[in-house]
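Run log, item B.
One chain of 239 residues. Sequence copied directly from the ordering sheet:
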Amino acid sequence: MSFSERNEIIFGASGAEKLKTSAVAVYGLGGVGAAAAMALVRSGVGTVKAVDFDTVSESNLNRLIFGFENNVGMKKSEVFLSAAKAVNPNINIEVYSDFMHGNDAASTVLNADFHIDAIDSLNPKVNLIISLLESGQNFISSMGTGGRICPEKLEFADIWKTDVCSLAKFVRKRLRNRGVKSHFPVVFSREIPRDPVESEEENSDGLGRIRKTQGSTVFVPQAAGLMLASYAVRKLLDL
């Protein structure tokens, strides 16, 4: 019995074959992106390309779908590769351990049929979005999921029609400042997030700014990831 046999009942033989010959790129393997990437694997997508520079930390274990104590300190991209192959040994996985600085975004846009933006750092996120728009790619972007506990408050929307979510607000502001008015789909939450706590910890690789620590749960990030993957699959199959 094939691992994707139950998928084929839903998608049909032609749909399953279409997914098998499709490639999806996922940018960011945090709580959201990791869930999206693994859902694509389990849905029978033949090629999944993942970009993430970070390593698994103990603070990730409460929400990272492939986060376990025995892989703390390992690159998320390599852990994803192993997890994906454990589900489907025949899948084609490409991993890139890159951090997208300002001018790197365009060169980091991978060759894929669909793209999922699950980056949580504002500058790289906006740079990627603009590069995806300028190159005419099909994509969806995840907005904020931290500080929330209610997955049922997640929604699909156009980036210009979200509310409550501060990340979406900042993304729109950056886009306006750069003269970008294009529309694209996002997943966002209407839930008001809990306040972050003071922290003096800096990103482990020194690539981020010192900032407050936002609480998180498993519920909203993974649910958002599943929504992103579902959207990608439906777009690939014209459903």
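Observations after the first pass:
- Residues 5-236 form a domain with the Rossmann fold fold (CATH 3.40.50.720).
- Residues 219-236 form the longest helix (18 residues).
Flagged for discussion on Thursday.
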